[in-house]
Design goal:
Layout (H helix, E strand, L loop, with lengths): L1 H20 L3 H29 L1 H19 L5 H29 L4 H8 L2 H20 L2 H22 L18 H15 L3 H4 L3 H19 L4 H7 L4 H13 L1
Helix pairs in contact: 1-2, 1-4, 1-6, 2-3, 2-4, 3-4, 3-7, 6-7, 6-12, 11-12
């Protein structure tokens, strides 16, 4: 949901909203710009809320919030309402990712890197499937709002399903991290390592070069995602590339 409803969806909005409401791409893109700026402080707030209220609460709540905002976005002809709904939806998408990743780090310790790598494969898969599939549904039905209303309802239902089944940690269910039975001493050593890494103060965090390398890496990745992938379809159409071919190109590029 997160990559689909933050970046990939812009391909569809740039393509259909100018004809529906007369908005320019600059006006539509303003929603993404504001949402990205708001997410800078909001990410800190959401991360704190995940710790305080549990990944289950934040993940389920933000999924439902994203679904509601999706329905609002496609049923309003008022640009300020659209921008506001998109900004809120964008933060909800960030929240659901933080909650889900937090749960993953509790369930997996020694295999954490591998698991997170598998989980994040959903991003390119979503990009390959979402824009192509949703655009073809709109082309087939001729109903932009109807298709996105269905998506919004589906997201809300997913949030309601997620609420009772998402578990923040394995221990309350008599299970062990990584699915491995460990002695009390081994578990204590693992937890001690986690507590040590979690005890880093902000000052130490921002004086470590790895922090800035991660920031640069994420910045480069999202520059490509938001600056290139989100405008790919409209640009192809400007070059007179047929829509089906442009959609297939986007899917192939996302997988690669």
């Amino acid at each position: 949901i997160q990559p689909a409803m933050t970046n990939d969806v812009m391909n569809i909005f740039y393509t259909y909203l100018p004809d529906l409401y007369g908005w320019t791409r600059t006006q539509i893109g303003l929603a993404l710009t504001i949402a990205s700026l708001v997410s800078i402080p909001c990410n800190f707030l959401l991360a704190t809320m995940v710790i305080k209220f549990s990944p289950r609460t934040i993940t389920a709540g933000t999924i439902i919030g994203c679904g509601i905002c999706t329905i609002i976005m496609v049923h309003t002809s008022a640009l300020p309402v659209f921008i506001t709904a998109f900004v809120i939806s964008y933060q909800c998408c960030k929240g659901m990712v933080l909650g889900g990743l937090s749960a993953c780090t509790n369930w997996y310790i020694t295999t954490r890197g591998r698991i997170l790598g598998i989980v994040t494969m959903a991003c390119p898969i979503s990009s390959a499937v979402f824009t192509n599939g949703v655009t073809r549904m709109i082309m087939a039905t001729g109903n932009f709002a109807g298709v996105f209303t269905g998506i919004g309802i589906g997201i809300i239902i997913l949030g309601l399903i997620t609420a009772p089944i998402l578990t923040a940690a394995p221990e309350p269910y008599g299970l062990q991290p990584d699915g491995i039975e460990r002695s009390e001493a081994e578990l204590a050593a693992l937890k001690a390592g986690e507590e040590e890494s979690a005890g880093w103060p902000l000052k130490r965090l921002f004086t470590t070069k790895e922090t800035y390398l991660l920031m640069i890496g994420w910045a480069c990745m999202f520059t490509i995602m938001t600056g290139f992938m989100s405008i790919f379809i409209p640009r192809m159409l400007e070059l007179n590339v047929p829509m089906p071919m442009a959609l297939n190109f986007l899917s192939i590029a996302s997988i690669i």
